[in-house]
Amino acid sequence: MTLxxxxxxxxxxxxxxxxxxxxxVPLEGDVISKTRTVDKPTDEPRTSTTLEADxxxxxxxxxxxxxxxxxxxIVDGDPEAAMSLTFTAPADASGSWTPMAPATAGGAEVQLxxxxxxxxxxxxxxxxxxxxxxxxxxxxxxxxxxxTLRWAPATTPAGPLTLRAGSWLLLTRTG
Length: 175
What we know:
Layout: H1 3-9, H2 17-23, E1 35-39, E2 44-46, E3 52-61, E4 66-76, E5 83-88, E6 94-98, E7 121-123, E8 130-132, E9 135-139, E10 145-153, E11 161-163, E12 168-173
Antiparallel strand pairs: 1-12, 2-11, 3-10, 4-8, 4-9, 4-11, 4-12, 5-7, 5-10, 6-9
């Protein structure tokens, strides 16, 4: 038996366990400041204009928790078709996100409008590729579940819209 195991086996050797349990952040499990990142391992082309869940960019979130959301999306495709994207969260979650990208290819004005989960934004793309860096915040209610990127071409493209390998979604627990 290790010293830690022996110490833990005693009910409360120093009389401070109740105090410590309410004052310190645990080091295991879904704790504040824990970051979860998922990476897109392969390119994913799409031609359907129906918003669908990404095959890789989904992160499980805990109930009654708050998270900061960051993503790095590498996208290329038909500039005339653009890209439609949103995020979905568990049913009783609240929060918002913004695409932080121009609405048209080569556009000068970055979209910073606050959007609800499930509310789509249209962003410009180019055949050479663009980076779309959406950000947001999500607070879950009593229901744990998946936080997921959903995307599609905004209009029927001349060729596929492709979300490239190396794109990622990152959630950091803040509360």
